[in-house]
Amino acid sequence: MSSAFPTYEIEKELHSADYQAVVGVDEVARGVLWGSVVEAAVYIPPENVPNLIGKVHDSKQMTPKKRDELSELIKENCF
Fold first, then answer.
1. Which of 1, 44, 51, 64 has the lowest tally of Cβ within 10 angstroms?
2. What pLDDT digit, counting tens, does each position of 23-35 carry?
3. Can you tell me the distance from the alpha carbon of 23 to that of 42, in angstroms, rounded to the nearest whole number?
């Protein structure tokens, strides 16, 4: 069973294997056959990971207010 929140274990392994950057990519769409698709990529500097642990998870399970709050937190801590 997967964790409700990211653990960043994979990222830690990649950084210890000398990868310089690990970037997360996701998309959102209204439907498969029609509608717009929005894609995004986010880089979290390793020193900023503690600011996000336990706060970021599936946005579909969050209230709009919580998504807005996390949006600001992500903008402050990520590229």
1. 1
2. 988 888 877 677 7
3. 6
SS3 70: helix
Which residues, in sequence order, are CB contacts of 26 under 8 Å at separation 6+? 39, 40
Reported pTM: 0.72
Intra-chain end-to-end CA distance of the chain, in Å: 30
- Residue 51 vs residues 18, 38, 39, 45: alpha-carbon distances, Å: 23, 26, 23, 11
CA distance 17 to 19: 6
- Give phi and psi for 43, each to the nearest 5: -110, 125
Indicate the length of the chain as a whole number: 79
